[in-house]
C-alpha cells in the first residue's frame, strides 16, 4: 500500500515540489541563456548583484547567499577577480575572510546584464495575476522556512 500524498494530485507532476522544481529549472535555463550572451554564469551574476548591495561580503557569505558551496564560491570569486569585475584584499584584515568589492568594470557589467535578467523575471512575474503576487511571495517564503527547519518528531 502506497503512502497517501500530502495533497490531492493525480501524479507526481502535480506535486508542489515537482512544480517548484519545474519553475526553478525553467528560470535557470532562461537566465543561463541571457547571461551566456554577457559572458557570465548565474552564480557570477548573483555574486555581482549581492556585492552591489553589500560591498565587502566574504566568500562564505556570498556562497550561502548564492546557494553554492564555499569551494564553488571561491572559484566564482576567482573568476570574477581574474575578469577584473571584483577586487579582494590579498590578506584578511581579521580572521580569514577576504572581503570582495565590485570594480568600476564590475559595476558596468552588472548594469549591462541587469536589463536582460530583469526581462526574464518580468516574463515570470507577468504570468501571475498582480493581485496574487504578494500572496505568492509570502507562500514561497513560508515554504522555504518550513523546509529549513528540522522535521517535527
Automatic annotation (TrEMBL):
Record has DNA-binding as a keyword: yes
Position of the signal peptide: none
SMART domains per UniProt: HTH_MARR (SM00347)
GO biological process, alphabetically ordered: response to stress
Assigned keywords, A-Z: DNA-binding
Keyword Zinc-finger among record annotations: no
InterPro entries per record: HTH_MarR-typ, MarR/SlyA-like, WH-like_DNA-bd_sf, WH_DNA-bd_sf
Name of protein: DNA-binding MarR family transcriptional regulator
PANTHER family named in the record: HTH-TYPE TRANSCRIPTIONAL REPRESSOR YETL, TRANSCRIPTIONAL REGULATOR, MARR FAMILY
SUPFAM superfamilies: Winged helix' DNA-binding domain
Domain HTH marR-type: 13-145
GO molecular-function term, one example from the UniProt record: DNA-binding transcription factor activity
Source species: Saccharothrix variisporea
